[in-house]
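Narrative summary of target 7.
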Amino acid sequence: MLPLKTDAPAGAAPLTLVLLLLLGAVFAYQLTLGPFDDSRFVDDWALVPARLWPSIKAGLPWPELVRLLSSAFLHAGWVHFLVNAWTLWILGRTLEPTLGMLAYLGLYAGAAVASALTHVAVYPDDTVPVIGASGANAGLLGAFMRLYPAARVLLVVPIVVVPVWFRVPAVVYVGLWFAIQLLQGIAAADTPLAGGGVAWWVHVGGAVAGYLAAGFLPRRLSPPPPVKAGKPASWRVGRWGDDGASGPWGPRDPGR
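Modeled conformation, tokenized:
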């Protein structure tokens, strides 16, 4: 499920743009590297759970502590990068003006660290590098659900080769997404990421951290007004090319 847009209030998000530029710059640099150099670059800056605790016990925590954040700026391929970049843009345009730059930056960085530590707690001896901004983005999702639970989120879900979109309240979208991450994480709790894969517990830890943090952070914008009577959140499903459909970027219901 990929969010396309929300009806939550949005505004200028310069810090989000800076984060996107950093993500893009690091990914562009990775693309210039050969397989061997890219593997070495990832190993230098990614989080490797098996290295964290021994480093702390040895009294040299800073290199590994830095990797708790630097790992969030590395990506494994185009799809990995584009999905994370788009999600950051969608959520950042609401959360940055809502929280302010400083609190938003703290939320993003704190979620990245919390998500990485959650993964380490589940797989303390794993030697597979953990990379990607999905943990930080999970924190933004958790905060978004807490701050704007009734905001409608337009989702696209590919069914075979036909994309299907539908609108649901943020609490439904994030709740369903979180349940999937948690169940997948429990199922894979005894299976480290040998050979790579999805770090489910990174998503779980980031989402919980973001949801909890949102309860303490100051807000600059008020939540949107509740949906008016007679105009509930739309659960209608549409497909590309439906007769009379205005497309995924326009309203699905007359008068909206």
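The first strand starts at residue 2 and ends at 6.
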